[in-house]
């Protein structure tokens, strides 16, 4: 199978998978107890979006460390692509969380510790792009951005796990709660896991597109310089 | 080279920073005056009598750290920016090892923040009528906060010194990184105001200590890269 055919197959697979996830989220999973109306169904989109955002920031860290070790411009482009997608998925997780908050608690924004944490996370990675824009020299930009990305990543566990537990939070228990168990109906769990796989597939697709584009641009630049 | 020679180099960098600051007094003036002006504005507008009794610990703890935080932001980036502005960074790269430069600059920022706290916190306590039941836990929190803030500020200052528009960039880069720290420090200070027990302040202290620890380790690995980039 050629690269083009493999990519085409991948797109169709992810598309079909997501159709199944959407069907499962609205028709297969039962209605959750203790929530207003059908609002809990947003969990099948909100949680995977948040998961993919964290995954993207992990990829950003990995590729940043690789750039620091090898100084390959493609690693810098990979890191930037992962951070960009992480930002997009974080914004979507924030929006879906706000929709849930409006239905459950009457307001889009409740100054909940988890809402504040994700906004700080958005600010951290927005700052990463502000730094990139402020450095003209490509090699220096790559090195300093990679250093900042590493520094940003080490604060992420505090934002995601520590700060939300200091203050009272309206946010429902996370998927794996503090008791270390998953309190979820098995059919809901099946759909949620399928959604996690589907959204990860979308991330891989978008990330691959960005990296392919960056590779073409880098190769063209190298050709022009030589 | 041994650890003692590294410490000697770091102390030499620290002494250089101190001498340079005592000559110009730019960082001390900006941090001190910023802190004092903000404190006077807060004390004048809010004062000790405008806050309900039940809101006092939360509001006073939050305002104290906000004043300290923004005062610190106004001067901590200078340690590296001034080297680039004065074109002395290259000489410093030749004169001392990266870790010694980082440690010397960090020590200077810790000293600057400690001086700010020593000056501002008692004054804040008097002007705002801040009553603290756990004085020793609060001092421990202030010390941990001082080190943790200086750690983040020092490595971010090193990063932004090599970029254009470094003044504004420092705030953009440092504020989001320091916000989790600020949240934990405010929570801990609020508890220290109402309880004399160590066990109550310990979760916040552990959080601040852990964040300082990971920033320290990351800085030790990242600074040589940033310094020579």
Structural notes for this entry:
- The complex is a heterodimer of chains A (226) and B (229).
- Chain A is 78% helix and 0% strand.
- Chain A has six helices and no strands.
- Chain A has helices spanning 3-28, 43-70, 73-105, 113-133, 138-166, 186-225.
- Chain A is flat, with a radius of gyration of 20 Å.
- Chain B has helices at residues 3-24, 26-45, 56-73, 78-85, 89-95, 98-128, 135-160, 166-194, 198-228.
- With 229 residues, chain B is an all-alpha fold.
- Chain B is built from nine helices and no strands.
Concise description?
Chain A is an all-alpha fold. Chain A has helices spanning 3-28, 43-70, 73-105, 113-133, 138-166, 186-225. By secondary structure, chain B is an all-alpha fold.
Helix content of chain A: over 70%
Give the rounded overall mean pLDDT of chain B.
89
Helix content of chain B: over 70%
Largest sheet of chain B: none
Runs of chain B in which pLDDT lies below 50 for 5 or more consecutive residues are none
- Count the DSSP helices of chain B: 9
Distance between the termini of chain B: 23 Å
**Which parts of chain A are unreliable, with pLDDT below 50 for 5 consecutive residues or more?**
none
Which word captures the global form of chain B? Answer: globular
Please report the number of helical segments of chain A. 6
Percent of sequence in beta strands of chain B? under 5%
The run of helices and strands of chain A is HHHHHH
Number of strands of chain A: 0
* Strand residue percentage of chain A: under 5%
């Amino acid at each position: 199978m050629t690269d083009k055919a493999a990519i085409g197959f991948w797109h169709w697979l992810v598309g079909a998978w997501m159709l199944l996830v959407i069907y499962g989220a609205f028709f297969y999973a039962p209605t959750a107890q203790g929530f207003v109306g059908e609002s809990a169904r947003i969990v099948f989109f909100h949680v995977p979006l948040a998961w993919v955002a964290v995954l993207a920031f992990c990829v950003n860290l990995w590729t940043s460390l690789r750039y620091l070790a090898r100084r390959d411009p493609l690693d810098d482009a990979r890191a930037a692509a992962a951070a960009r997608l992480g930002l997009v998925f974080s914004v979507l997780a924030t929006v879906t969380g706000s929709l849930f908050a409006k239905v459950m608690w009457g307001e889009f924004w409740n100054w909940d510790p988890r809402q504040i944490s994700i906004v700080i996370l958005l600010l951290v990675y927005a700052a990463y792009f502000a730094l990139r824009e402020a450095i003209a020299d490509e090699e220096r930009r790559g090195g300093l951005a990679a250093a900042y990305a590493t520094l940003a990543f080490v604060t992420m566990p505090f934002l995601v796990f520590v700060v939300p537990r200091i203050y009272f939070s309206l946010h429902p228990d996370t998927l794996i709660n503090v008791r270390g168990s998953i309190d979820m109906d098995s059919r809901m769990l099946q759909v949620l896991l399928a959604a996690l796989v589907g959204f990860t597939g979308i991330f891989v697709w978008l990330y691959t597109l960005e990296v392919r584009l960056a590779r073409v641009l880098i190769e063209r630049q190298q050709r022009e310089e030589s | 080279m041994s650890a003692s020679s590294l410490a000697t180099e770091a102390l030499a960098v620290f002494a250089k920073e101190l001498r340079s600051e005592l000559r110009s007094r730019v960082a001390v003036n900006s941090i001190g005056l910023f802190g004092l002006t903000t404190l006077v504005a807060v004390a004048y507008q809010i004062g000790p009598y405008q806050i309900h009794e039940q809101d006092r610990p939360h509001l006073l703890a939050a305002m104290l750290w906000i004043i300290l935080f923004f005062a610190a932001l106004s001067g901590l980036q200078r340690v590296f920016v001034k080297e680039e502005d004065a074109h002395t960074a290259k000489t410093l790269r030749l004169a001392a090892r990266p870790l010694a430069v980082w440690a010397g600059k960090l020590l200077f920022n810790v000293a600057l923040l400690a001086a700010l706290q020593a000056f501002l916190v008692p004054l804040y306590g008097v002007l705002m009528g801040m009553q603290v039941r756990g004085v020793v836990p609060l001092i421990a929190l202030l010390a941990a906060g001082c080190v943790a803030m200086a750690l983040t500020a020092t490595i971010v200052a090193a990063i932004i010194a090599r970029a254009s528009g470094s003044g504004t960039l420092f705030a953009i880069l440092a504020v989001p990184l320091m916000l989790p720290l600020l949240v934990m420090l405010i929570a801990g200070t609020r508890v220290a105001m109402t309880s004399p027990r160590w066990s109550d302040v310990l979760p916040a202290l552990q959080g601040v200590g852990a964040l300082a620890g990971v920033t320290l380790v990351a800085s030790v690995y990242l600074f040589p890269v940033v310094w020579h980039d």
